[in-house]
Design a protein that fits this description.
Layout lengths: L6 E4 L6 H8 L14 H12 L4 E7 L5 E8 L16 E7 L10 H14 L6 E4 L6 H9 L3 E7 L4 E8 H8 L4
Parallel strand pairs: 4-5
Antiparallel strand pairs: 1-2, 2-3, 3-4, 5-7, 6-7
Helix pairs in contact: 1-2
């Protein structure tokens, strides 16, 4: 599966909330920390993101134009990591979520994170992607490493202990061979 398999569109908090609710409340999405969210909570959370100039949400679409994953990106100088590290010009933060499925496709999640990273690096102003997954989320640590992320240190966020990691444009290309 190739990262070019996917397209992106802006998330619509009202029309996409029901879909997202199923994704973020599934037990396999525990690290998303929305297990007990009601539909209205998901709508509200994504309405806030839609209104935020420093935080954005997109849906990744499969070949048929159907939603296949969620991507968020944010300015770490203003959201998520404010005061927890010294942001550099060109830094952008990222989250992604692939929905749980009973029929997993080998290589899907790796193709998703590769597509997400390629999308972020389409912006020439982006020099480095920053992530802060839960320290116990070993599956995402492996995926991050597979696209070039290098862990820097553990940090304590209000909601979790996180592994602060960075991936430059050059690291992404050297690791994946995907032009960035």
């Amino acid at each position: 599966m190739s990262p070019t398999t996917f397209a992106f569109r802006s998330l619509d908090p009202l029309t996409d909330a029901e879909l997202l609710h199923g994704w973020v409340t599934h037990p396999k999405a525990a690290f998303w920390m929305m297990q007990d969210a009601k539909l209205e909570d998901v709508e509200r959370a994504y309405m806030e993101i839609a209104a935020d100039e420093h935080h954005h949400a997109l849906l990744g679409l499969d070949r048929d134009g159907e939603p296949a994953f969620l991507m968020e990106y944010y300015d770490p100088a203003h959201r998520e990591l404010t005061g927890l590290y010294e942001p550099q010009p060109g830094d952008i933060g990222m989250h992604f979520l692939t929905p749980a499925t009973d029929t997993p496709v080998h290589g899907f999640t790796r193709a998703v994170i590769t597509a997400v990273m390629a999308r972020l690096f389409e912006d020439p102003a982006v020099r480095r992607v920053v992530v802060e997954p839960d320290v116990s989320n070993t599956a995402v640590h492996a995926l991050n490493e597979a696209v070039g992320f290098v862990p820097e240190r553990e940090i304590q966020k209000p909601e979790k202990k996180a592994l602060l990691s960075f991936c430059t444009r050059e690291q992404f290309f050297a690791t994946t061979g995907v032009p960035a």
